[in-house]
C-alpha cells in the first residue's frame, strides 16, 4: 500500500492525499481550529486512525489543557460595558419584582406572568454573568455550544418578555390615582429598556451574528413560544364548552416541543447524538402545528363569540370579552408565524434549513 501524505501544520487548511491498493485517490480537507477542532470529509476510512494519531502527536490534548487553563476568575468582566448592563438588568428586574410583590399578590394570570418574567430574566442574566466572570464560556464554546449566539439570543428573548409585561402591567394596573402602580410601571419599562440596549449593542455595535438563537430561525421559534404563553395567560371562559377545550389542547401540543427544538439546536453535540434527523422532525412538527392552529383559529371565535357580543361597557383595563378576543387574535398571530416558519423551511430562505 502506497500512502502519500502532505501536512501543512501552521495553516488552517490541511490537504492530504491518500491512495489505496485499488488505485483511487481521495482528497480530504481539514479546517484546523483552536488546536483541536477540525472537520474531516472524505471516504478514506483506513486513514482515520493515522489522522487521529497525527493530531494527538501535534498536541491536541495540550490545546485542550491550554483552553481549560484560561478558565479563571476574572472580576474585570463586571467593569466592562456589558457587565454594567447585566448588573443594571438584574437590579432593575429585582426592584420591579419586589415592588410588585409589596403591592400585593393576586391570582390574575397577567400579574403572575409578569412576576415570573421579572424573576426568570435576571436569573438567566446572573447565570451568564457568572459563566463569563469565571471564563467558563471558553469551555462551553469549545465543547458544546455557541456562547455568543446563546447570550445574544437570551438578550433578545428577555427584551421581548420584559417589554411585553411592562405594557400589559401598565394596561391593567395604571390609573390616575394609582401612584404606586405608576412607580412599578416605570421600573418595568426601565428593565425592558436595559435589555433592549444590550440587543442594540450586540447586533449593531459589536456586529454579532447568531448561528441559531440570535438568528432568525431560532428567534422565530422564541416568538412562537412567546405568543403561546400570551394565549395561555389569556385563557378564560372555556370550561363549559368541549370545542373550546379542544382548542386549548391544540395550543398545548406544540408548546412543550418548541423549547426542546431550541435547546437541541443550541447544544450542537446533543443534536449530533440524536438517532433521527432533527430538521425533518422540525418540518413534521411545523406541519402539525399549522393544522392545529388552523383548527383553533376557526373554532375559538365561533364557539366563544356566538351569542356573546362585545358588552357596551368594556373598560380597557379589565374586560373579559377583550381578553377572550385577545386569545382569538393571538391564535391568528401564531398561525401566521407557524405558516411562515413552514414556508421558509420549505424554501430554505432567511437562514432556515431546507428539509
Automatic annotation (TrEMBL):
InterPro entries: Marvel (IPR008253), MYADM-like (IPR047123). GO terms for cellular component: membrane. It is found in: Membrane. The keyword Transmembrane helix applies. Residues 77-207, 212-350 form the MARVEL domain. Keywords: Membrane, Repeat, Transmembrane, Transmembrane helix. It is a multi-pass membrane protein. The keyword Ligase does not apply. Transmembrane segments: none annotated. Belongs to the MAL family. This is MARVEL domain-containing protein. It comes from Oryzias latipes.
